[in-house]
Amino acid sequence: MTETVYIRPIGFVPGPQAEEGDAIGLAGSMVYAHRFAVVLRRDGQVAERWTCSPQHIAQVIGELPGTLGEEAETQWANLKIVHPPLSLGERTVRLDQPQVMGILNVTPDSFSDGGEFLDNPEVGKAQAAKMLEAGAAIIDIGGESTRPGAAAVWEEEEIKRILPAVQYCAAMGAAVSIDSRRAGVMEAALDAGATLVNDVSGLQYDPRSAELVARRGCPVVLMHAPGKGQDLHENGDYESVVFDVFDALRARRDAAVSAGISPDRILLDPGLGFGKKLADNTALVNALPLFHALGHPLLLGASRKRMIGALSNEAPVEQRLGGSIALAMAGMDAGVQLLRVHDVAETVQARNVWRGLRDAALTDFSDLPG
Fold it and tell me: Which sequence positions are flagged as catalytic?
């Protein structure tokens, strides 16, 4: 018999004053939770569930058997962690509000902008400058399409694609992330000025990658994908997608730490769209606050993805801005720290309005007695 425990935030308020202080800020964010579900899972099935506020969670945790209580204590502490800023070379990215990561694909077959920036470096440079001016905190550069059915790319070809983009973005003073699952590409990008690794395989695809990231000491995003080989989308069968992805991310985190990567350099991404059906994706978006219990900053990559088309009369990729903003807002409401998007200006504007509302909620006591 195997038992696991999870602490999921399920009730939210504009600020702690709404519950007379009986609420916590999730992972140092501007999102406040006052109600939590403590879920006991036994042999893959939910066996028991308790709900409580911060005032009473110690009592619930204290009644859990054995090491489950220790794990729950760790998760509760993680939910309250205030993450320090990301240090990315000469750039510092604060994590006390949602930050926007702009996507720059230099591939011939990206589902969204294939070929546009690969074949025209000046156009790519202009796009990067536009995203930075609009408020992107990080530019994420990828040289391989990871959409279902995409052709494999040789490491040398991927390096050839990404290097000019990394160099011109770094020359602009941008914080640059390299979106790759190959250690050789990661190293070439880091040497050229990238300061963050974003690995869609969670450091599983290339056996050299974990050692490289540990040696370079750079932050790394570990994304969940069910496939461990060339096809990241295979094996997408889940007993309970939310808990299964949580467990898988915890396992990848633990493997990264065992490889020598400092825990404070790890970010996590639930991997929307990778080996997941529409129902899986919607479940993960709705459960995003749970993933703070792992104790790391979260990245959400939902921009222009297939689930938006599935929920909006099969809207083509170029007509998914509204859905992309809706999913970004869902991420903000869940306390996600990084939003990986194509439409930077629009997302930054949405973030700024969202933050204005959050700031106002913290200082508006007009509806409270006294």
Answer: 305, 340
